[in-house]
Amino acid sequence: MGIFGHGRVWRAAIAVVGLASLAPTTDAATLLTPGAATMLRASIEPFGLSSTVLTYGGLRDKWLGVARELDDEQVQLALCDGDRDHCVSPAALRLLAIVDDARARAGRARLGEINRAINLAIRPMSDLAQYGQVDVWSPPLVTLAHGAGDCEDYAIAKLVALRLAGIDGDDLRIVVMRDMLSGKDHAVVAARLDGHWLMLDNRRMAMVEDSYMRNVRPLFVIDQHGVSQYVEAPLVALNGT
């Protein structure tokens, strides 16, 4: 049977194929700078807003760079999942343990377990403090190895963990939004469950539906097909005003 058990080998291979679909299928141009927008998408996205697919731009380039790094990490995750006793990456083992705990649950509890575990596994730290530069998007094994990251790093780690835990890619998004109270941009994972979008946010353990988010303006949405920009996103204000 070789060094890997057959069951784990197939599961690891499937995980690699599933995670590979996180990367957009077209090529890569500063963050949150919209590029050419094509193809209006129906309002099935979080917040019920229509979006247009970006064919170039800073955020798209940022995501493409992370997607290439995810390809390398997928191989390591697959090997470690196949033979954990010989895994040389503590970060991979930590992520796989989180995924194992999530797989033991179903529905909202599965999403909540990953949200809670990733929030606890990473301490908040700005890119400037950690890397000496701004807007560094890191894949999950890098983030977990450092034990620190900012909102985008939390979101990317949760996205990968959710996919490994069996959540369909069509039901997952990274949403970039403007916090209108602080004036800063913020990234979360949105997961669709029973037709409702739940926000997995590093700032809170409880998951909140998109319809209950307040004082935010959704800007961009990232899924397994690429990056899109929300069309004329309105302010979602306190008390709906």
Q: What is the strand and helix layout of this fold?
A:
Blueprint: H1 6-20, E1 37-41, E2 51-54, H2 58-82, H3 90-103, H4 107-121, E3 123-124, H5 127-131, H6 140-146, E4 148-149, H7 151-164, E5 172-179, E6 184-193, E7 196-200, E8 208-209, E9 216-223, E10 226-230
Parallel strand pairs: 3-4
Antiparallel strand pairs: 1-2, 2-10, 5-6, 5-9, 6-7, 7-8, 9-10
Helix pairs in contact: 1-2, 3-4, 3-6, 4-7, 6-7
Describe, in plain words, how this protein is organized in 3D.
The protein has helices at 6-20, 58-82, 90-103, 107-121, 127-131, 140-146, 151-164; strands at 37-41, 51-54, 123-124, 148-149, 172-179, 184-193, 196-200, 208-209, 216-223, 226-230. The chain has 241 residues and is of the alpha+beta class. An eight-stranded antiparallel beta sheet has the order 1-2-10-9-5-6-7-8, covered by helices on one side. Helix 6 (140-146) packs across helix 7 (151-164). Mean pLDDT is 83; it is low at 1-14 and 25-39. The chain is globular and about 50 Å long. It has a single domain, classed as C8orf32 fold (Roll).
Q: Approximately what portion of the residues adopt beta-strand conformation?
A: 15-25%
Spans of at least 5 consecutive residues whose pLDDT stays below 50 are 1-14, 25-39
Q: What's the overall geometry?
A: globular
- Based on CA atoms alone, the radius of gyration comes out at 17 Å
Topology-level CATH name: C8orf32 fold
What is the residue-averaged pLDDT? 83
**Strand count:** 10
User: What would you call the structural class?
Assistant: alpha+beta
Order of helices and strands: HEEHHHEHHEHEEEEEE
CATH architecture: Roll
Count of helical segments?
7
- The total number of structural domains is 1
Q: What is the CA–CA distance across the termini?
A: 63 Å
The order of strands across the largest sheet is 1-2-10-9-5-6-7-8
CATH C-level class? Alpha Beta
Q: Considering DSSP H and I runs of 4 or more, what fraction of the residues is helical?
A: 25-40%
Question: Main sheet, how many strands, which sense, barrel?
Answer: 8 strands, antiparallel
